[in-house]
């Protein structure tokens, strides 16, 4: 979803000039506010995990984005906001040909996509209203097309701000801007867009679908970012606002995109066979928690659990989450093989790693005398997973090291568990909250998981 780019008297005079500027600005702000009020004839539309009436939802999103940037752009960049000269342009098979940067475009060129055109003389956002937006609306809910439009609006903001950065940085910054807009809609009562339950979680799912494939180097001119990079940027904008996003070109953007190191790694996607992944990652978690347990409880040693593979979850004295669990009687980790194998084959070896980390996290909580049930405890285990991943990336515990896309696999596993009908959204938090917990551990370490 990227742009196809293109003395006393002197002091007195200065004071008078400044007063004149202030007066003009005041008039402009007053006019802008008046225009916003008039434009708020657009009825508020509630967007979330369920499908929305698409045309009203898109209209409300467009109005909300203009309202947001009319106030935020001057605050962040110190100059006035100019609306899109060419506006928002829905495209369908019936749409006539159009141009971008002097190049003829048809619906077939745009099909399944959306982009900001900032070529010479161009300034508009085009989107596939016939297939892409209905599909996103039906599969991910009404918030999904809104997130796409917010991302493309981010590219329009970059042109107005004069941002010059590599593709992956501009894409992540646009995700960050999108997150800052979503936070604005959430806290603005009279905004044309209202958020319902699940809107934040669905935003995460939408972004994951639009990620780069593992093995794409960050230097690729078309790179948008891996799923984790894009979700991290989106949540950074949500948490810190557009001002923080403005710093991305100066080095704040986080990228984990790396090329595959060998032909064999590319062939396997960097994934270990299931049985080897169980052995290697279990050893890594044993080593990590043996070293890290004193950070959780000073002076406390970690008692490495036994490991048992079972065909179905045990019923007594065991807590099972995400296909794995911990049995306090006997200090044993149990792995539900069919469930883990399915996730391993569908997502990758760090889906297995995420489930194993969940089980070891339960072991740590039991041994440390910490609560092991409820929302806060579950989020703490997600944070533990992030901290373990950070150590895994840093020193290759037990001979392991992260492959391209491994962090995405952990993220995808958490999101899948959070959003599935049998997942744990209600009792331990949704995808947005759980992802934020994992990020906290990854970036800040185990000390952030208390």
TrEMBL record:
Pfam families noted in UniProt: Zn_peptidase
Top-level division of the source organism's lineage: Bacteria
Membrane topology: Single-pass membrane protein
Localization per record: Membrane
Keyword annotations of the record: Membrane, Transmembrane, Transmembrane helix
Gene Ontology cellular-component annotations: membrane
Keyword Metal-binding: no
Protein name, entry field: Putative neutral zinc metallopeptidase
